[in-house]
Design a protein that fits this description.
7 helices
Length: about 270
């Protein structure tokens, strides 16, 4: 009897591991970025691992595991590592808000990340910021300064965005559907609210948006060989009005980013 029980347990574990390889990881930094996604999940089961809540279930016909990273690079790296270790996702999609660096973008617009870079890793000298690569702690090999989002996921996001229905964004000059564009995402452990800083980020890194988690997720996925995509919806333009704009546009930006993620997940 005991042998039969152990055999059935092993078969179950084996089937679970095979099945789990087809799971997509979905991450977000703040609760509002995940509320819509969690509410749309079917057969959801929650589990807490190392003080991190993971929700597993079906979203838009796809098996996913959803988690909130919290703010900042360390939190993002911890949650991403736990997700990869315990759920073995085939790919990871991150959804969240960001500050605009490209002046052609407005609050509410959505950027599909093509590349992700740190804007606060390196050395500060009298001449300015010197950007240097991170290193893999196992063999001290240099990582690329630019982490590239998965090309297939980018194509899926661009394709599905044309058929999605987003919420209109109310601005001072009227209500508009968000502009969807591709661009470079830059990451640092600071909330950017400075035109001087955004000009530097645009000049040095050709950034479209700035945020606080993407590059940590990208580096973790790169080192663990997991394809990833970063999707960011603008809550502000990272200038002196940033704090006020976040209050006005945060909710709609988070909801539209979630709509984009649901569309991408359905295409995987």
């Amino acid at each position: 009897m005991r042998k039969k029980y152990l055999l059935s347990l092993l078969l179950f574990a084996s089937s679970f591991n095979t099945f789990s390889q087809n799971i997509t990881g979905v991450l977000g930094a703040f609760p509002p970025e995940l509320v819509l996604l969690r509410s749309k999940m079917e057969n959801r089961k929650d589990t807490v691992i190392a003080q991190t809540l993971f929700s597993k279930g079906m979203l838009n016909g796809k098996l996913i595991v959803l988690a909130q990273t919290g703010i900042g690079k360390v939190n993002a790296a911890i949650t991403t590592t736990l997700m990869i270790e315990h759920f073995k996702p085939s790919e990871i999609v991150f959804s969240g808000i960001a500050g605009g660096v490209d002046t052609s973008l407005n609050p509410g617009d959505i950027v599909i990340g093509t590349e992700v870079k740190y804007h606060d890793y390196g050395a500060i000298e009298d001449t300015g910021m010197i950007y240097t690569p991170t290193k893999n702690p196992y063999d001290m090999a240099e990582n690329p300064i630019t982490f590239k989002c998965d090309s297939a996921l980018i194509q899926k996001a661009v394709s599905i965005s044309k058929s999605l229905t987003f919420e209109k964004v109310k601005r001072e000059n009227g209500s508009f559907f968000p502009t969807i564009t591709k661009g470079i995402v830059v990451t640092g452990d600071v909330f950017v609210a400075s035109e001087i800083a955004t000009k530097r980020l645009r000049k040095d890194l050709n950034a479209a948006v700035t945020e606080m988690e993407g590059a940590a997720i990208a580096q973790t996925c790169y080192q663990q060989k997991v394809p990833f995509l970063i999707i960011r919806s603008l809550s502000d333009n990272a200038n002196k009005k940033a704090s006020a704009d976040v209050k006005n546009f945060y909710q709609i930006a988070a909801e539209n980013a979630a709509i984009m993620v649901m569309g991408v997940v359905g295409k995987i």
